[in-house]
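Quick illustration for those who missed Monday's session on complexes.
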Amino acid sequence: MALLVTPLNNVGVEVSGFDIGKPISDAVKAELKDLWYEHGILLFRNQDITPEKQIEFSRIFGPLELHPLKATTSEANPELFVLENGSDKDKFFTASYHGEEIVGRLDWHIDLHYTGRPNHGALLRAVELPSSDGLTGFGDLVKAYEALDEPTKELLDKIEIAYSFSMQRKHMRYVDLDGYEPGPFSPKKPSDMNYPDFSDAVYPGAVTHPVTGAKVLGVVEQFLDRVVTPQKAGISNDESIELLERLVAHTRKPEFHYFHEWREGDMVLWDNWRAMHCATGTKPGVRRVINRTTIEGGVTLGRTL
Ligand SMILES: [Fe+2]
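Prediction with fe (ii) ion bound:
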């Protein structure tokens, strides 16, 4: 059985030619894992999948992580995390963008970036969907790195970049705040959402992928705070801010992105050590359910301060 691999727009591939309902041979499992490392973002469509099958399938890519917030995990399947829009919790995730109320919009990010130990990846499966709304974007930071000029790559090898966790989007230094207003229930501090507080996490300017050895651009806009002691790399603080602004603009180029428009039964798997992701959010009251499984990060990529 050969897997069928079709490129998506710009980055990532769709993989078909296997049936998740049937036993998957070790050879196909190895092929799936290789594709994950080769492309970073995999889409599977039209698979007849139950929560149990999703968990089993996800284990091909590594041990699974239980989500730290118990409230949102499924009782029967603790490895499954249910992402739900359209419930009474929406108000905490509602904000205004140019006068429009949006639920669950998320800037480009890497999961658990702020801990220094991002998980290895995650698999999302659409369970219930609005007609259109709520795209998930994926951005390939290996391709973004490769497209940089040599002097920038050399500079990235000399610097470290700090990420600062914060609950208030308006405090994030490099996200696009134009037209943004927090909602009346937007959390103000980590304890408002039962989150622990996190000290800063620091990464190399170019992170080496622990498995493939590829260089991954270490700049992602959410929680991005500063270059640590830029003077050691021969640049001033002002130059380091301009560098981050330039690199954030670089990561926003559409040629590094794939935006997934969900259909029921779709599954998307990404490598969180290589790809950033974002969510465009939904209109208030729109119901949307996504089941998520998370592949554990067995490696610490950054360090905490
Ligand atoms: Fe995320």
